[in-house]
Specification:
- The protein is 11% helix and 29% strand.
- By secondary structure, the protein is mostly beta strands.
- It has one domain (13-187): 4-Layer Sandwich (Metallo-beta-lactamase, Chain A).
- The chain has a seven-stranded mixed β-sheet with strand order 1-4-5-6-7-8-9, covered by helices on one side.
- The protein is globular and about 40 Å long.
- The protein starts with 12 loop residues before the first strand and ends in a 13-residue tail after the last strand.
């Protein structure tokens, strides 16, 4: 457990809309962030709506869960790299949440994201390392605790983040997340269960 008492089960639903990647098919210029939908008690959250090969496919995936772009109440940026943020405008009614503020229409509302509850079973946590501003979105569901995070690129690695701004902070963030998360949704890959990693 953390200082924020992450419950082992909760009311959130988590759906990965798009599995990210880096260097798809050996093409080093192709990069895409993992995009996740979280629904909890009327709050509809999209985490890291960044670069994807097809916006239409992303919106079709959203629609397959009975949700349209105008239904999204909140967008969360794990950090401010374009591969995780560039498609935020697809969700016109959403508040944007990052590490230090909430942006709603023309309002910039300063606040530290660490510990913020977005919904009854969804919390933001400060998890620096990849950047100093990284946050993770933690959702408690009926089948476990999911962490949307860039503390890992994917289940396959890299073991050490070559772009990390603070390697020691990244290690501490990983340890924090592993203390309660049963499923990791990494920045550029499919979800994985920590005990199942190679």
């Amino acid at each position: 457990m953390t200082a924020y008492e992450i419950p082992a089960t909760g009311s959130a639903e988590v759906h990965v809309l798009h599995n990210g990647y880096v260097g798809l098919d050996g093409d080093d210029e192709r990069v895409s962030g993992t995009v996740t939908l979280i629904i909890d008690s009327g709050t509809v959250i999209v985490v890291d709506p960044g670069m994807v090969a097809s916006r239409e496919a992303l919106l079709a995936s959203l629609a397959s869960h009975g949700t349209g772009p105008a239904d999204v109440t909140d967008v969360v940026f794990s950090h401010h790299h374009p591969d995780h943020t560039v498609n935020a405008a697809l969700f016109p009614a959403a508040r944007i949440n990052d590490h230090w503020a909430v942006y709603e229409a023309d309002r910039w509302i300063g606040r530290d994201a660490d510990g913020v509850l977005l919904a009854p079973s969804v919390r933001l946590l400060r998890t620096p390392g990849h950047t100093n501003e990284d946050i993770s979105t933690v959702a408690s569901t009926q089948d476990g605790v999911y962490a949307c995070t860039h503390a890992w690129w994917s289940a396959e690695g890299p073991a050490e983040d070559p772009l990390a701004t603070d390697a020691a902070a990244l290690v501490a963030s990983r340890e924090l997340l592993l203390s309660f998360a049963t499923v990791i949704i990494p920045g550029h890959g499919a979800p994985f269960r920590p005990g199942a990693r190679g």
